[in-house]
Amino acid sequence: MTVxxxxxxxxxxxxxxxxxxxxxxxxxWRLALDGSDxxxxxxxxxxxxxxxFKLFLDDVGNLFIRREGLDPLLPPVVSGSHCxxxxxxxxxxxxxxxxxxxxxxxxxxxxxxxxxHPLECVVWNNEEGSRFAPGCMGSAxxxxxxxxxxxxxxxxxxxxxxxxxxxALRELLPEAEHRPLGTPFAALIEAHIEQGPELxxxxxxxxxxxxxxxxxxxxxxxxxxxxxxxTTPRRRRKDAFFSAVTxxxxxxxxxxxxxxxxxxxxxxxxxxxxxxSVVPGRASFAIDLRHPDQAELERCHAIVIETVAxxxxxxxxTVTQKSSAIPVSFEGxxxxxxxxxxxxxxxxxxxxxxxxxxxxxxxxxxxxxxMLFIPCKDGISHNEAxxxxxxxxxxxxxxxxxxxxxxxx
Length: 409
Ligand SMILES: [Zn+2]
Fold this sequence. Notes:
Helices cover 33% and strands 23% of the residues. It is an alpha/beta fold. The strands form three sheets. Strands 1, 2, 3, 4, 5, 6, 7, 14, 15 and 16 form a ten-stranded mixed sheet that branches. The protein has a four-stranded antiparallel sheet with strand order 10-12-8-13, with helices on one face.
């Protein structure tokens, strides 16, 4: 019993969805539940309803598209990802996983094959976290890692609370039934572009994801004193910017990893009052640390605290932990099924570790979980230039269909 997906239909659907939030540079700007993201949800819902599938929406705005199984009481085999993007993001991050799952459901539907378990395509809300921080919020709430109240109370960069946006989504999708948070899955498989260069460099079509690195986000706030830039001699200054720069340079040295496994990034930096003639009284910067080993992340956390304390003078500085995620390992039936399907289809594949975080990180403790990657051109992602080829997209979706079919039978 096999089903063949329709690669043209799948590619065209990617191009169709890329219209929502399209940028002049060929990318997508579609922040969680903004106008374009709502339109994208409605478009996905219309496709699903046209195919006779049912819609479900939970309280944090995750959308589920369901094809019924022979035994509707069995938990569903679920696949999907997200349809929000980064500002000036690409046309494939997230949406590929959603459309691959939808294509799997559609081709299985049209083949007439009945599965024991229901099949579902999930569209996780707010994966990117660029409007509402942190990211992977919908999946975190669904899996019980974050409380619903905390998520709904999150205020977007534009001042709008997530609660209002979820209400707007519910009004936009009146056909959707209510889905209780945490409703169990039989299995979860997520397809995603790699967002790195490994597969392309190796000429490999499919990455069988073995795990995901842990993540630690820290905020450093340096407090000095605002002074006149012309009259204040150096000996009297408490320049928060200079202290912050000294700290960053010291961190760069202290966290240097010869093996290039540790990822250390300062991606946000602000100074205050940010004026020509005022010695900066405050400086803040965000540290993003990633590593496959939790003990190593904890060691780095201690290094940051110690380094900040040592280099803050003459200012004061604090380190605040904003979020963390422990490293994840994907083992078991889903990963095995991905491997098997790739062998049967003679699609070149290799094991790969995920450098990025994804919604599936929260599920290995709840149900069999796995991920697959396809290459993206030059490893570029979170960028308008992001590109995945129609044939790689088709190969990834075919494996999603094969694995869903196998696990649901
Ligand atoms: Zn993504």
